[in-house]
Amino acid sequence: MSCHVSAVRTCLKRALFTFRCSGKADCLKKMYSLGSESLIKQAREIQETELQKFYSRLVKLLQLKELGHETVDSLQRLHLILSANKYARTLPSDLQQRLLLLLSSPSEQLQVLSSALLRETPPSSGEELNNIQENVSQLNTHAAALLVSQARSRTDLNNLCAQLVHGLEGRPSDGPTRSLMFTLPVLNSILRLSPESLTEEHVTILSKKFVDWLRYASILQGGGASLGGFFTGPRSRQPLPTAELDGSVSGDFFTVLCVGQGFTEDQWMNVYSFSMLRRWLLTYHSVSSGNSTMDADDRSEVDGSVVSMVSATSSSSRLLPPKERLREKAFQYCQRLIEQCDRKAQKKSDTELQKACMVEAVCILDCVCVEDPSMVFRTFPSIKALFSRLSSDLSYARVLLPIAQFYLNHGEMAAVDCECVWKLVFARFPAELFNDPFLAHELLRFLRQNLDGLRLRAPEFIRFLPNLLKFLAWDSSAVVDDFVDLLPSLVTEGTAVEMLHTLLDLPCLSATLVLQLRSVSLPISESSSRGLLSLDAFRNPAFRGLFLFLLRVETGSGHTIDRLSTLHDLLAEAADWPRVVRCAQVVPVLLHIYFNTVVTVGQEKLLAHLILVMLERSGLLLAIPTYSREIHRVFSCHLLRLCKLRPSLVVDQSHELLEFAGTTANVYSKEEVYTHVVWVLGEYLSAASDSRCSVALITSCFETLEAVLFEITSSAPPPGTVCPAPKVITTLMSALAKLASRSHDLIPRVSLFFSKLRTAARNGSVAWCADEDDLVAIVTRGEELWSLLKAPGVAQSVLTPPPHVLTPRWHRDTNLAMPLQLRVLTRLTHSQ
Predict the structure, then answer these.
(1) pTM for this prediction
(2) What are the percentages of helix, strand and coil residues in the chain, rounded to 5?
């Protein structure tokens, strides 16, 4: 490889600037791509002899006292060679040893390179890894990450965890302690990967150390902060105390919200401990309690710590076991954080930090109270006060969600009324913050994780379903997975019908939310180039009720089925808005989940009502390309399923089904649904499916379908429409034949139609079928049905076979010879 990686990159960067200035970015992209491909190809095709020479030259460079740019450049080239190949290369032992030594280099660039190189090679030997583990005082982030990545077994992880935990026990006199800042992040990674690596001894040690770092960190600034003054010298400089975010001097123990010009080692450990505390409280439960006994007089000590008089711990706290003492200190720490968050920060970034700390503090208090329910009564006053202070400001919405979690977990025990919390979370948040993606994610995650608890302690959350769907209407692609999980739990007898309407109107809701934001941002006098008519309609008091219904917060607050066509006309121009189109694409998916759930929870009366809704709403959909077709496909699929599950529904809703099937216009505008309605009538309108089915009902259905079939086969389609699909015609013919086979008086009538159909086809092309092959298929189907009807007894058995023929159970019927033969064969094969 004749050219260095860094040199190539420098040239490419310069070329990038030149081409950007000249407007030739496309040429640059091609050049950069070709350059990258050339480098990778050279790295893959390098010969073994050249590679060995490169190894030797790199070892010599690493033996120098000062490692310059040439060494860095060679390490980058080596990383390219190792990473460009499919299989891992084994480095020479002397080179690997040098790379291990680089992990403790003062240059972070060399640490990063050596760690990246060693991760590209097979795991180092146990002896080499042990050497790194033993030098805990020199451990850094990159060395620790290498140790975790190259652990080859659970035993290696256990040993590494034990080494790191015991390394935390060292006192400052034992050596440098700067590596402690790198130990906790690595331990946190190990806890995520393998919580069982912890032992009871590790839990005890870490709990003690967390108490030390959280509660007894110095309150004086680090980094040599001085009081100042003309005569101030190095010997007279005294460290300043840390400050609060509002600028006042910190009067209590150190927390993450204390600021200063510099920080001491134990203050950094305080910050790291707080960031890891919640995971630790959730993790150490998985450690099985051993037989180790705790010393009642055990005390946490930190040499050089400065503890304020206000926060000095009592002797009773020191007598607690390590876990209980950690919970007590965590409680005190979080209470102090909540008090600090009440101060007005001088910087905007500090205000965001306060919000983040409030979220973490409330979550930690929740964990503490879950572990020790007796802490609920001590914690609830501060949580209740925090909720009262923040509930009026929606900018703290993400802080209020953990508070809602606390109320859900402990409100019943504390006998607190949580109604105001649920109204805020489920009513105001979605209604006013539906366009906040972070809040949407966290609120929906809160719902998914607490569905059982909400159904038990706050069942009223289901009534806010139309409000929650605003998140889906606004950003459907981001939250559809959440609603796929949530929807089955939200379908009940009381919400099923309204939920179906709401899901079908979801694109309308999406357009309305866009108009709501536009109406606020655009003055009334200013005309917009796009969406002007719909925006004017949104502001028009005459149509305000329609839009307010879509924006409703709770279920059962109105019904717009009579004016849906008006609403769709007003929103016609929104049919191609990207947000509305994306929303329409997820509706069929959710409808499938909805129907799969409703058949398990709904009674026959509800299912009958849903059939009416499907027939009615099949013609009341927002005119989005392909949307109506997809919804019709879903309706058709689940109409068949409902009728197959409950055949009596066809008789119950026969009037509405016949009215739908008797409307000729539905053949052209709702082809998919119409075909399946006709099939359902022909299949299940029989005395075998429901004893209430009379000859009069069969005759009425026959006459209705006969009239439609005669009309569409005797004239050309209406202007602006295409010829009916052959599938519709053959389904009508099959339905008439099935009905005639159940009432033999109707056979001459359907036979006459089949005869006329054959005669018309022989005379040439017909106006109602444009394709000759389709016409042949239709006539052939008619002749087959006509032949069957000449033997009525056979026709009924073929067209409507009994259930035992459709689902044979010969292998289970003991009256047949087959089970006996199977048993004999089984015994013969087993005996051999």
Answers:
(1) 0.80
(2) 70, 0, 30
